[in-house]
């Protein structure tokens, strides 16, 4: 029964982690972190990502332009680039580590301790990747909210709003963290079940009535 629970937890955790990793990779490269609609020209919609800015026109044409120098970007975008690339790398590492540790995987079947450690390391990598995804997405969203409600900017100036990639990044980070937690919990459960049982101690030998020792017969005196 416990083995069945572990197998289901591992399958669910791996599925969530893979879904989160793919979503995180998509979030990294799509130019949909912010969107801007111009009141003066409603036929154009501006979108911004970590790597480029795009203009979508009503006739269906999309024109994109890459950002300039990396050092010229705002700090939020620079750090977000690094953290999202780190998250993608950690997600790939988590896949490579956790896959051999799954119960249905034939690799390392004769080494349960190694499989458990691989599964635990993969879960930790997925959890760290989730944190590395949630941090930049939340930071960019926080700055977007501050800029939107900035009273020093005239109302006529258009404001950036949340793009689709912001919500996708939040879901990706949550899926990665949840998948890594499930994998780590299943690995810990397997460890507690495989701990060796304590050795049974033998009861002490029966002791005699006099001082705990059997009386030894004395040699009889020879009578001449």
Describe this structure in a few short sentences.
With 224 residues, the protein is of the alpha+beta class. It has 4 helices and 5 strands. Helices cover 54% and strands 10% of the residues.
Features of the shown structure:
4 helices, 5-stranded antiparallel beta sheet, alpha+beta, 224 residues, disordered C terminus
Task: Explain how this protein is built.
With 224 residues, the protein is an alpha+beta fold. It has a 5-stranded antiparallel β-sheet. Strand 3 and strand 4 form a beta hairpin. Helix 1 runs antiparallel to helix 2, helix 2 packs antiparallel against helix 3 and helix 3 runs antiparallel to helix 4. The N and C termini lie far apart (81 Å). The C terminus is likely disordered.
User: How are strands sequenced across the largest beta sheet?
Assistant: 4-3-2-1-5
Structural class: alpha+beta
Would you list the SSEs in sequence order as H and E? HEEEEHHEH
Strand content: 5-15%
Task: Based on Cα principal axes, name the global outline.
Answer: elongated
Number of strands: 5
Give the number of helices: 4
Mean pLDDT: 82
Cα radius of gyration in angstroms: 32 Å
The protein's oligomeric status is single chain
List low-confidence stretches: 194-200, 210-214, 217-224
Helix content: 40-55%
Largest sheet: 5 strands, antiparallel
Distance between the termini: 81 Å
């Amino acid at each position: 029964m416990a083995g069945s629970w572990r197998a289901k937890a591992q399958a669910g955790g791996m599925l969530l982690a893979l879904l989160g990793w793919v979503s995180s990779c998509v979030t990294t490269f799509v130019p949909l972190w912010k969107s801007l609609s111009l009141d003066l020209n409603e036929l154009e919609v501006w979108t911004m990502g970590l790597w480029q800015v795009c203009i979508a026109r009503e006739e269906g044409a999309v024109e994109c332009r890459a950002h300039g120098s990396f050092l010229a970007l705002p700090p939020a975008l620079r750090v977000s680039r690094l953290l999202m690339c780190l998250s993608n790398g950690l997600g790939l590492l988590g896949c490579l580590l956790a896959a051999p540790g799954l119960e249905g995987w034939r690799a390392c079947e004769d080494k349960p301790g190694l499989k458990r450690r691989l599964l635990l390391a993969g879960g930790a990598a997925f959890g760290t990747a989730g944190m590395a995804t949630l941090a930049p997405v939340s930071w960019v969203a926080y700055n977007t909210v501050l800029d939107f409600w900035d009273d020093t900017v005239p109302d006529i100036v258009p404001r950036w709003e949340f793009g689709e990639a912001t919500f996708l990044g939040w879901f990706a980070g949550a899926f990665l963290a949840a998948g890594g937690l499930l994998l780590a919990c299943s690995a810990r459960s397997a460890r507690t079940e495989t701990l060796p049982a304590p050795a049974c101690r033998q009861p002490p030998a029966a002791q005699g009535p006099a001082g705990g020792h059997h009386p030894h017969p004395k040699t009889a005196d020879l009578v001449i």
